[in-house]
């Protein structure tokens, strides 16, 4: 009886979702609000983006003396998968796998190319790469998110966005961390 109980307990632990590895409705709302602010600052000309379905697992920050570097670097190692549940005002989104993205942007010589991607998705402005969200408050109103973007292979970069989504006090601080 004890062995059966222990086996059942281990099974439940191993198969239950781990906190932070899955996305819920609040997370997609946060991603959508933060991405909307980010895209508005980029002054984009189109209204469609591709989002890679696998989260970034590397924290791209050159200055290791940044006060949250170790915490965010450790946090970003957790891989999550995105579904197309983003609702960004005035923007259409499509989620694309890493494999598909690589097949459209890396040729047989392992050179980066963009023509096949834009031939298949002519309406997109850029490709977005997201980290998991690191919330600093349990109510999920404050936290950090790394956003990477690339467009036309000509420019792009990674940004750390510190956000506060309180209704009357919304704040977004965007720190450039790596630029192509």
Total beta strand runs? 7
Secondary-structure element pattern, one letter each? HHEHEHHEEEEE
Strand content: 25-35%
Q: How can the largest sheet be summarized?
A: 7 strands, mixed
Unreliable sequence segments: 1-21
Q: What is the residue-mean pLDDT, rounded to a whole number?
A: 80
Enumerate how many helices there are, as a single number. Answer: 5
Shape: globular
- Give the terminus-to-terminus CA distance: 60 Å
Range of helix content: 25-40%
Q: Structural class, judged by helices and strands? A: alpha/beta
Rg over CA atoms, rounded to whole Å, is: 18 Å
Note down, in words, how this protein is organized.
The relative contact order is 0.18. The N and C termini lie far apart (60 Å). The chain is built from 5 helices and 7 strands; from the N terminus they run H-H-E-H-E-H-H-E-E-E-E-E. 29% of the residues lie in helices and 26% in strands. Strands 1, 2, 3, 4, 5, 6 and 7 form a 7-stranded mixed β-sheet that branches. A hairpin with a 6-residue loop joins strand 6 (155-164) and strand 7. The chain has helices at 2-15, 25-42, 69-75, 98-105, 115-120; strands at residues 48-52, 92-96, 126-130, 134-135, 142-151, 155-164, 171-179. By secondary structure, it is of the alpha/beta class.
Q: Which helices and strands occur, and which strands form pairs?
A:
Layout: H1 2-15, H2 25-42, E1 48-52, H3 69-75, E2 92-96, H4 98-105, H5 115-120, E3 126-130, E4 134-135, E5 142-151, E6 155-164, E7 171-179
Parallel strand pairs: 1-2, 1-3
Antiparallel strand pairs: 3-5, 4-5, 5-6, 6-7
């Amino acid at each position: 009886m004890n062995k059966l109980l222990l086996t059942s307990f281990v099974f439940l632990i191993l198969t239950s979702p781990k906190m932070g590895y899955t996305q819920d409705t609040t997370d997609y709302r946060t991603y959508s609000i933060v991405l909307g602010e980010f895209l508005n600052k980029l002054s984009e000309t189109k209204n469609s983006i591709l989002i890679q379905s696998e989260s970034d697992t590397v924290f791209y920050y050159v200055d290791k003396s940044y006060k949250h570097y170790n915490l965010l670097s450790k946090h970003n190692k957790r891989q999550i998968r995105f579904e197309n549940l983003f609702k960004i005002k005035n923007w259409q989104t499509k989620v694309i796998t890493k494999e598909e993205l690589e097949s459209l942007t890396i040729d047989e010589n392992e050179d980066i190319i963009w023509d096949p991607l834009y031939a298949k998705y002519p309406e997109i402005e850029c490709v977005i790469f997201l980290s998991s969200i690191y919330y600093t408050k349990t109510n999920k109103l404050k936290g950090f998110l790394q956003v990477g973007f690339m467009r036309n292979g000509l420019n792009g970069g990674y940004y750390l966005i510190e956000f506060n989504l309180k209704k009357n006090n919304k704040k977004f601080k965007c720190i450039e961390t790596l630029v192509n």
